[in-house]
């Protein structure tokens, strides 16, 4: 007699996942978790060498197929090549994770250039729509087809110091809600609103050591900053059959708190 397995619905055996920005940090944790749950994974990252190295490490640790490919998600040709390579290697695509996202801090939101606003939209919002369009033929043929997006808490709370990034992430939330209704019974689409998860990306975004130290001790209900695995666990729930009754949602994974920014006097 088989014993009841409460974790069976979290298995992703037979699924093929593309994870953009999956070579490090949150994206790598998502790719590793999906692979550990049984999925075959394609890591798409601007740094192709790092993507291949991450895929090799994941395959070694989980015993399942994983591949890496260089992909600039702001370029249509790169997206097309990534999806084609995934379908050729693994036979299709059932799971898309639009994880790519980045933004730079600015002291004066009104000094942000029009070009920077547009570039942020192209990277954080438009790339997700283009990836979705490229994957659509395969997703429509897949069982439990899902798209899960890396949103940000700053897309829902005031964030004048990340005005371009926060505006693009807010647009991502609304765009993906619209697409969830468009696909309805065919593809489940959800977005995870991610709170403070400290990575090396914060320094690249323009936050100095003092600012990062402040972020490391957030005023939220859990009293700590997040870890990449905290986010990856939420993605597994939403993308696996365990989340089969969840679609069109923005799920807050932020330690139970928000960071409201008030301009200093």
UniProtKB/TrEMBL annotation:
The organism's place on the tree of life at top rank: Bacteria
Coiled coil: none
The protein's name in its UniProt record: SDR family oxidoreductase
InterPro entries linked to this entry: NAD(P)-bd_dom_sf, Sc_DH/Rdtase_CS, SDR_fam
Species name: Limnoraphis robusta CCNP1315
Gene3D superfamilies according to UniProt: NAD(P)-binding Rossmann-like Domain
PROSITE patterns named among the record's database cross-references: ADH_SHORT
Keyword Oxidoreductase: yes
SUPFAM superfamilies: NAD(P)-binding Rossmann-fold domains
Keyword Plastid: no
Keywords tagged on the record: Oxidoreductase
Similarity remark: Belongs to the short-chain dehydrogenases/reductases (SDR) family.
